[in-house]
Amino acid sequence: MLLHDTVLVFGRYLRQTLRSRFAMLFGVLMPLLYLLFFGPLLTDLPLSSQGSSWQVLVPGLLLQLGLFGASFAGFAVIIEKGQGVVERMRVTPVSRLALLLGRVLRDAAVFVFQAVLLVLAAVVMGLRAPLLGVLIGFAFVALLTVSLASLSYALAMKVSTPQVFGPTINAVAMPAMLLSGLMLPMTLAPGWLDVLSRLMPFRYLVDAVRDAYVGEYATASMLYGVLVALGLAALAVTVGTRVFRTAGA
Amino acid sequence: MAIISAAGLARSFQTKHGPVEAVRGIDLTVRAGEILGFLGPNGAGKTTTLRMLTTLLEPTGGAATVAGHDLATDPAGVRRACGYVAQSGGVDPTVTVREELVTQGRLYRLTKTQATERAEELTHDLDLSDLLDRKCGALSGGQRRRLDIAMALTHRPKVLFLDEPTTGLDPGSRADLWDLVRRLRDEYGTTVFLTTHYLDEADALSDRLVVVDKGVVVAEGTPSALKLRYGGSIDATLQDTFLAITGRGPAPADSTPVAV
């Protein structure tokens, strides 16, 4: 039943995405601009001992794509609440978990698709990375999307207006981006900033993807990255399901 | 036979200014096949009650059963037995009528073929056949309402909850909707529980009325019994009766009947 319902909800929202192809491509615009206008600044900087600056920057941009894209996913729920669609679905016997998972998996599919576009553009710019590492990067994008979209939907069920939702997300996403070293690795940071950034879970994901991009798969960073990504996803889906189950929204 | 029964059903919300009791304790019984008009001033707790009876909102007190299923212990059973049309409806304006109806059928666990057949059947019954491939957002107010109801009837529910179904409709569409509600009851024996602010609608459509105010039931009975008891005469308007019951009009709340 859960599988049936999840596929159904996934299909509904995937069709919704496919109807607005422009919006789907628009999401990739911000990281693409970073790639074009920020990436070239880094090519001669000593960012890491291994690999090129693209192998440092592109993992960060991939997770930035997930971070900003997925954390705003909840806007759709706010609109649907106004249309009555959320309640109409919640009075049917459909699994509550499926209502969340169907949406979240759609988001994961969309962002992995955008990540593929981004990596292709990066290859044109000069990125060279092992295929397995690139694939691992996509898996992290998917996991990050699942986590953040779940939390975003949960928040959207709780708040009543986009005026509350938007600023809240921005207030969380901006510091998260800066503190996780998405743009430049935190190894460049002074001690206090490096310590602070270790409290930010996304840092472990970026470090893991950067390792993957230089072909280092059996590292401590990779282990931490996988554990944090899985833990975050499990926590976020639990929170999301709980909210979808009980929300008086 | 009671198809809905509620005892002391209550819901309070926590706000910054302390708890607000939206519904204080609703006791009511609805018989199978009845059209029940659920009336009350704005903020009386009508929608909150409806949302509790349809499992959207967990009660903070009391108990209720809908079609034999307990709200607290068997919400899934309640969901299978009832249909609900919210004030705002519940369709995506960018999706076609056909897609919404088929997806709805699938949410009620019909197979793809069954869901497609059911969508055609419903659109035929509710006079929407020509609109199957139209976007929901392109429908008129009356058509939208019929679609909302079609969505709620997908699984042939025993009980249909309608929250202010005719608000914003033109007189012709309202008359059509009244016919539809009567037809549902007469042909399928569907129990209809509807809220409305239009007292002529309540008068014309309901077998029985329940009036709520400040979160409790303040009066119930057939329209004529209420008119006689609170309005002073069987010829009283429901408007005056309503104002007398809720104490917000000129007639004294405890006026004695004219015919003693």
UniProtKB/TrEMBL annotation, chain A:
List the Gene Ontology MF annotations in alphabetical order.
Answer: ABC-type transporter activity
UniProt GO cellular component terms:
ATP-binding cassette (ABC) transporter complex
Q: Which GO terms describe its biological process?
A: response to antibiotic
What keywords are assigned to this protein?
Antibiotic resistance, Cell membrane, Membrane, Transmembrane, Transmembrane helix, Transport
Q: Where in the cell is it found?
A: Cell membrane; Membrane
Q: Which PANTHER family match?
A: TRANSPORT PERMEASE PROTEIN (PTHR43077:SF10), TRANSPORT PERMEASE YVFS-RELATED (PTHR43077)
Q: What is this protein called?
A: Transport permease protein
Please report the organism this UniProt entry assigns to the protein.
Answer: Streptomyces phyllanthi
UniProtKB/TrEMBL annotation, chain B:
GO biological process annotation, one example: response to antibiotic
Report the main location listed first in the record. Answer: membrane
Q: Name one Pfam family in it.
A: ABC_tran
Residues covered by the ABC transporter domain: 4-239
Can you say where in the cell this protein is located?
Cell membrane
Membrane topology per record: Peripheral membrane protein
Keyword annotations from UniProtKB, A to Z: Antibiotic resistance, ATP-binding, Nucleotide-binding, Transport
Name one molecular function that GO assigns to this entry.
Answer: ATP binding
Entry's Gene Ontology cellular component terms? plasma membrane
Under PANTHER family, the record lists: ABC TRANSPORTER ATP-BINDING PROTEIN (PTHR42711), DOXORUBICIN RESISTANCE ATP-BINDING PROTEIN DRRA (PTHR42711:SF19)
Q: What is this protein called?
A: ATP-binding cassette domain-containing protein
Per the UniProt entry, what species is this protein from, by scientific name? Streptomyces phyllanthi
